[in-house]
User: Fold this.
Amino acid sequence: MEQNSIVTISGLIKRFPIGKGHFTALNGIDLTFSKGQFAGVVGPSGSGKTTLLNIIGSLDNPTEGKANVLGQEIGNLSTKKAALLRRKHLGFIFQTYNLLPVYTVFENVEFPLLLLNMSGSERKKAVMDSLDWVGIADKVKSRPAQLSGGECQRVAIARAMVKKPELVLADEPTANLDSENSHHILQTMENLNKDLQTTFIFATHDDKVIKYLKRKILLEDGKVTADDIITN
Assistant:
């Protein structure tokens, strides 16, 4: 991997079986992401965005080619080692929030820490710090059903950030939010990117997200057709 890069993808191909044939979701992807980038993979539905994020997040394996994430070759990882990579180093934000409805806000954010070797006091401080980052510490005892969509997504961001991961993968994080909430959520993630130097990679076709990106990678039919650094 290049110096300062945390993700290096080369010759990446991903095929899915369909009947007697296959569908090629990713077709020869070459990309490198550096520490602290605020980048987005942009394109229409079916372009391969989520598939690419799933491979970077060790949720899926390449059919051909390589994906090296934080020094580990995704295609060579056992199920246990892939889970360890996600548990220690990666954060995930989904459009559907994926909060556990019977748990409080505190318990939802604490959940990833239960898999790590942390004391109760360390977990409590990490959870409260994370909720403070996203401006929702006052909802600590609430359950997801008592929150708005924007608040639920803030909890999901807090959960993704609570272990201070090196890399956060966000798949259409504003898809279920109105413009005002989207703006607040994106500002929150932008601030976390600046303050903690966390790398963010989005999969999106939402113009609201695209306006915040510092790097925009256009994916069409499984191929990178543009890769631009945004300087404004």
User: Anything to note?
Assistant: The radius of gyration is 18 Å. The beta strands are 5-18, 21-34, 38-42, 64-69, 72-73, 90-94, 167-171, 199-204, 215-220, 223-229. The mean pLDDT is 92. Helices lie at 49-56, 79-89, 105-110, 120-133, 149-161, 179-196, 207-210.
